[in-house]
Amino acid sequence: MKTVKDLRLGMGDVQILPGSRHRPPMKKPMWIIVLVLFVCVFLVCAYIYPPKSSSACYIFSSGNCRSITDWLPPVPAREYTDEEIASRAVIRDILKTPVVLSKNPKIAFMFLSPGSLPFERLWDKFFQGHEGKFSVYVHASKTKPIHVSRYFVNRDIRSAQVVWGKISMVNAERRLLANALQDPDNQQFVLLSDSCVPLYTFDYIFDYLMYTNVSFVDCFTDPGPHGNGRYSKRMLPEIEMKNFRKGAQWFSMKRQHAVIVMADNLYYSKFKAYCQPGFEGKNCIADEHYLPTFFQIVDPGGIANWSTTHVDWSERKWHPKSYRVRDVSYELLKNITSIDVSVHVSSDEKRQVQSWPCLWNGIQKPCYLFARKFNPGTLSTLLQLFSNYSAP
User: Fold this and answer.
1) Cis peptide leading into 373, omega within 30 of 0?
2) Residues 355-383 pLDDT 10s
3) Is the CB of residue 152 less than 8 Å from the CB of residue 137?
4) 333 closest CA partner among 294, 277, 383
5) Smallest Cα–Cα separation from 305: which of 316, 292, 318, 315?
6) What are the domain boundaries of the chain?
7) Where in or outside the cell (predicted)?
8) Per-residue pLDDT tens over the stretch 57-116
9) For residues 234 and 255, what is the distance between their CA atoms, to the nearest angstrom?
10) How far is the C-alpha of 230 from the C-alpha of 217, rounded, in Å?
11) CA–CA dist 113, 182 (Å, integer)
């Protein structure tokens, strides 16, 4: 029998196994990190400086390649209502109808005024010697005008009350168009106010309007409270937020466009019902949104997106700057006629500036043919300056 001593000695003969080994920490795979960084830099460079080859277009998207969205299934188009289908069919056929050239084309000058026109004498001087090339229509909403020019006598149309900001303003515009369209020789239709004056000679304006390939309807996107902030979802489905536009009401449009405006009831009825001051707590001004939105939907490529009537909104008020006697000078008028870029500023806090050149048949030209808002007291000064400032 072994003693304790013998046991201890026996244990000394047993080989003691080493404990679990602690592996040294693994080295960081630096080559993987470098490879990932290289790929990221390559992808960024490829996006900024895209390859030109057609094979690379399957990987990278750029202005020279098809977008990835082009390879995806198309988004299903919204189903049009019966009213939209009927409206679009009529408008499409009108726009596709060949233009019938009149042997005696004329410009319809349509004046929207509360009463008498303070600048009739200036317009009389403008029209002299060009009989047969223009027509005059006056919509006086408050008082019967007293005319001092033979060109305005018996040119008043049946009128109705006009309230600023309400659909009655659009109604007056349509009423003027309806009367002017009765003359088949009227090929261009210009909406003017009682405070408007011409900036050029009749011949220059006649050629500018008669030989253009677009209508001059002001149209831009304003994401601010006085733009898209006026939109009502009740205009859906026919009028979507993405098509809601803003612009000055003063336009010059060709006959085809004047006809489709008169043919429209669908979009007009939406603005009549849901665009008015105070509706849903907003101040939607129908004459600032109806035509821009309408043309954005039915013929966006057919308008110039600016108005040929200059207005100074630099004072940032509800109404544009009014020119008084001390403001009117040769320099002022020449400065206006030198503007060849259309500028719009958003009504939100960002005050985003949108600008584009005024292109007439692809050629950059002065934007404005008319200007407002001139105080009646400036008539004498304008008459004295007209022959000088109106020369192109």
Assistant:
1) yes
2) 999 999 999 999 999 999 999 999 999 99
3) no
4) 383
5) 292
6) 82-306
7) Membrane
8) 434 444 444 444 454 556 567 889 999 999 999 999 999 998 888 899 999 999 999 999
9) 31
10) 20
11) 21
What is the pTM assigned to this prediction?
0.80
Determine whether domain 82-306 maps to CATH 3.90.550. Answer: yes
Radius of gyration of the chain (CA): 34
Q: Report whether 81 contacts 237 (CB < 8 A).
A: yes
Distance from the first to the final alpha carbon of the chain: 134
Tokens 């592996």 sit on residue: 23
Instruction: Say whether pLDDT at 241 is over 50.
Output: yes
